[in-house]
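Minutes, project check-in
Item: structure for the 1002-residue chain
Input as provided by the requester:
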Amino acid sequence: MKTVLLDRQQTLVQWVSQATGISTFGVKVRLLGNDLHILCEGTDCPQRWLTLSDLLQALQQTDLDSLTSEEQSPIYQVLVYGRKKGVHHPEWCHRVYLNQLDRHLEQVQQELLADAAKSRQVHGALIVSNESLARQGNPDAIARYLSENLSTLGVAVQVKIKPHQSQAESKTPGHRLWIFCQSSYSPDASLLGEPIAQRLRHLKLSGYDDAVIVSQVKGETDADWRLRVDLTPPETMLKEWARWGDLQAIARLLTEVLSEFKISIQASLKEFTLHIFCTPAFDPLETAPAPDKETCLQVILSQLEAIAPQGILAAAIYGQKTGDKQPAWVDWLSLPAAKHPALATSTLDLCISGDEPAIIFSLERLLNFDMDWRLKTGGIRVMLLRKGDLVHIMCDAPICPTRPQVASKVIQFIRQLHIVGIIGVRVYGRRAGDKEPAWSHGVDLGHRQRLVPEATPEFAATDEYLSDLLNSETNEPILRPDLTPQAVQSFVTEVAQDWLGTANHKLKKWLVATQLFTEATQSIEPNHDEEGIRGLIIWMALGLILTVQSDWMLGYVITHAGLSSAKVTGVLSSSDSSLKSGKDQHQRTAFFSNTENTKSSQVENSAFNASGFTQNDDPSGKLPAAPLKEKANSRAILLAARSQLPSFNARQLDEQLALYKQRVVTTGHSPDVLIIGSSRALRGIDPVALSKALATQGYANVDVFNFGINGATAQVVDLIIRQVLEPSELPRLILWADGARAFNSGREDITFNSIAASQGYKEVLQQAATRISSNQLLKSEKNVTQNEKIPEPKTEINSYQAASEWLDQSFVGLSFSYKNRDQIKNLLQKQLSHLPFSNQQITSKIKLMPDAEVDKSTQSVDFDGFLPLSIRFNPATYYQKHPRVTGNYDNDYKSFLLQGKQDAALQSVLEFTKTNKIPLVFVNMPLTEEYLDPTRLKYEQEFQQYMLNSSTTNTNFIYRDFSKIWLKANDYFSDPSHLNRYGAYEVSQKLAIDPMIPWIVK
């Protein structure tokens, strides 16, 4: 809003007072945009024409801009009001155009003469509207024309003309209108975009390609936003659409041409023939004769030959009276398409063949279903770019088209065309004039070998733009970020130095306590306390010797047992390359284990891989996969046991949470990417393979953790993300990998119900309530210092835990049996299985693990939370050991329902990630053809539509469908619905090169 400074305002008031003779107390002025408002009031309402006569004569002799600040926008018109003091509303108002003062003064003089003669006769219109002047293309007139609407919003307008070279091959350079809008606030583009576009296009300016609207806040140097308005004349737009055979456009063009003959046109298309009906334009009494045949044929033929509509071979023209069912005359015309084969092909057939101009027209016609709106504002413009097997489609308009408005229609149209070579569609939306898209949406129409185009389209999101979309690292404090393994080692070293200082003294006492040595100054009287200490030390030594000897014996037994097992089974050891790459992975987990520890030769030569399954019998069928890493189950059990949080009645959740929290404490920050979901996520995405693949795409040092939980549903995922994880533990991107059965609200959610009945769940809810109340307390208690709020014992506990873990890692290398602890456990289980009570105990344990099988107890995740399985799914042998369960009897699909508690959990996750600016990517994991029977296939299709609708309505949610990419690739699966480590490797590779996922850029 344009305002007047105090001294300038006084100047304007004095000028008006001198011009009109009204006291300065009765004059008020105000500037809004390019309009000057003058209010004149007195004891009696000032006379309208007399006041205007004095004011107009003063305006002829004064430059108003000289009375205002140099920074103010020019004044285009003056609005004068008159009212009586004490009255809220003016009695009269008159608008004065400063570029037509002579005509205004002439009108006022005539009104004064009429009043003197007591005549109310109104003489001819003397004022030319700003619209008439603006149609001539004068920039000042266009500015005055636009300010009529914008000044009421406090927006000042200036218009300039600059030469512009059109992209079309034209020797004549065009011109571009630049419209500068200035205000004291930042108006939204949607508030000004369409109104300005409609008023500009209403002028039907010639010689201008387009107009650029620049909005700027007063006092700032940079533009707030820019908007492009297409100034293509409506007639040109109609001819362009009519050239493609659009019936509505053809009918409008013919109606405009025949309007001078008072003839109305209606058109219809049957196969390749255009039927045109000519009737009288206005005939309420139905007495007018049928239109003249010669006139209609001459005009229509000339227009259709000039247009040459695509795919229309002939035209049948009918002339009839209003209300008659039978035409008065009929004629037949042959159109250019009948003579030129290139014009004979229909627009739809051209689209199917991949003709880009035909596809652009069809999409623009699909999106601009209201032709009047398109002609008034320019409508939605479509740009198309094909790169490899992808087609990129940009949609822009004065107001950015929304994703629900555009994306589904475009994708459905491209899908129906079945264009050869097109496997994926990427749709973008932006405001006309912007360089970067406001949103993007992509769908793959089939299995793609390459998920990323070779070159980024000009209108697509660049890497810099994607980095702007990513949320920055939070500044929330985390638990002891300064505590590192080096700091712990330094702490232990200091303790060791203090211990060495007292070692001599203690050793001296111990030697004396053995009574083999005596001090020179020792008293002869015996000390009974020292005898008790001597006995304690002796027993401690015996216990230490027994522990070392037991450890050595267990290591010896397991080593020889492993060698004999290797000889009996005759299974080949893993290749040297795998071992070499495995060492690299040990370096990635240096903060979890001692890097000097390597796998023993017995384990390397074992017939079992890290997942507990036998290796593939066919050495020639090698598939690429990330090298196996050290198992983390023992460490996870230890961390979970030391955790202060009670159990969740799900051992795997307890252990995964312990590993995750340990990762956060050790690295000092949360992982960049968190993989979450059920067992399909646990086995289906390899963090190491994903991190390495992202590094090849330019995303270096991306930290990835797999938080997959067997049997996890949407409710479990919602619980972990929103309540279990602390704010400082949240990742920068969430990769949710799962399928339809995790969202089935019709079945019983056994996993979540078990967790909800645990003490850990109650503790999490209590902590959430405490966190909310503590936040409120912090806001109310302003005088309490930060040191008083943070308890010191918490830091001591963390230091002890870190020191203890460091000592554990240091002594691991001294143990012979620790490396083979899993084999020792298996050996003991086999020996105990012969006891009479063992079966009952195992059965009871199985009941406590509802979603785990007996053989899964021997499986182990690595330190990244990933469960690598090497077994390959073979239907011929698999169903000999496992029953074939069809979808009709599968409890996971029982009473299949997508609306319910699982959907509510998804909506909670969407809202939470949107609030915290965390991108959420859902991956529908691959399935085998054996698994997708008709029942499951039906439910999967319902689920895909459900997820597409969710991704369309939520800008922070991205859906990627991999469910049918490997229907017959059984070597990538460990069972019909779960991937093995080879499939996990391939999925990780595909995700890394997926252009729709906003990966973390550091």
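Outcome recorded: The chain has a mean pLDDT of 78.
No further action items on this chain.
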